[in-house]
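Working notes for the structural subgroup meeting. M.R. asked for a predicted model of this chain before we commit to crystallization trials. I am recording the input and output together here so anyone reviewing the notebook later can reproduce the run.

Input as submitted:
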Amino acid sequence: MDQETVDYIVSYFSNLYTEEEKYTIEIDIVKSFGTAEAFADYEAHYEMGMFSEQEDYLELVKMTAGEFNSILATRLLCDHKDKIFINRGKKCDKLARTPLAKQCRHCGHDWH
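Returned structure, recorded in token form:
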């Protein structure tokens, strides 16, 4: 799957994320600001049963954002194919900007 499609799925179908995936994204955001505080609450969340397996969580946190997003988009597409609409331009068949877009950002074709 190309990066543009990965970004599209991850951006517009976040309502389909698992709780574990949502928390991993929050951790990644905090990590990007350079604080170690993101990991301080891990044990409490694990004990509350937020994560199915400690190893699963640790593997998710170790990934780069690109790797994580690629895996996430693939899982969403496999598990929720009926809920994900890949909006493509009617003329050039390239990916539209959003699921509700009515004009192609690549060729300018309008299908209002």
